[in-house]
Amino acid sequence: MTTKTLLLASALFAGLFDSLAAVPITPAPYHAYCRTLWLFATPCADIGSTIVQQIQAFNPLVGCDVCQYKLVSVSPISIKANHTSIDGLQTESISFSFTPTVMTSGCRVTAQSSSLGFTSLLDDGLNYCNLYNLLSASRLTSAPGFMEMTNEWACLGYGLATCKA
C-alpha cells in the first residue's frame, strides 16, 4: 500500500470511530464554526511547533491586546488561540489537537474555529480561513502526506471561503 492509501484508510477509520472525541457534544447555538481534520506524514511535535511559530509570526507584538492571532495555551497535544478581526469587532476561538498516527509515524490534527459572538451561521468561510491561513502561511499545506478532510456540515461556509494568507 502507498503512504497516501494508508493515510486515507487511517483517516476513514478514525472518522468512523474517533471523530466525535474532538468535537464538542453540543455546538454553541448561533455561532459560526469550522471543524476540520488534517493528516501529515510528519511528527506531531514538528506540526505543533510550526503552528505556534506561525501564530507568533502573525503577531510580532508581545502583549498585544487586539492581535490578529493570540496564543492562549500550548501543550504537546493541543494549542488554543484566539483570532480577532483587524477592526477588533469579531473574535473566534481556535484549537488544534494532535494525535500521533501509528502506521505512518505522522500526525492527525483536529482543528476548530468558533465565532465567540452571536453571528450569522454562514460566515463566508471566515472560520475555515482562520485555520487554513495558518497552514498556508507556514507552508504546512505542502508538508509530506498533507491531506485535509472537511465539508459544509462540519465547516459552515467552507464552500464560500476565499482565504488570503
Describe the secondary structure blueprint for this structure.
Layout: H1 3-17, E1 33-40, H2 44-58, E2 69-75, E3 78-84, E4 91-100, E5 107-115, H3 126-137, E6 147-149
Antiparallel strand pairs: 1-5, 1-6, 2-3, 3-4, 4-5
Could you please describe the fold and organization of this structure?
By secondary structure, this protein is α+β, with helices and mostly antiparallel strands. It has one domain (3-10, 32-160): Kinase associated domain 1, KA1 (TATA-Binding Protein, 2-Layer Sandwich). It has three helices and six strands, in the order H-E-H-E-E-E-E-H-E. Strands 2-3-4-5-1-6 form a six-stranded antiparallel sheet, sandwiched between helices. A hairpin with a 6-residue loop joins strand 3 (78-84) and strand 4 (91-100). It is globular, with a radius of gyration of 15 Å. Residues 11-27 have low confidence and may be disordered.
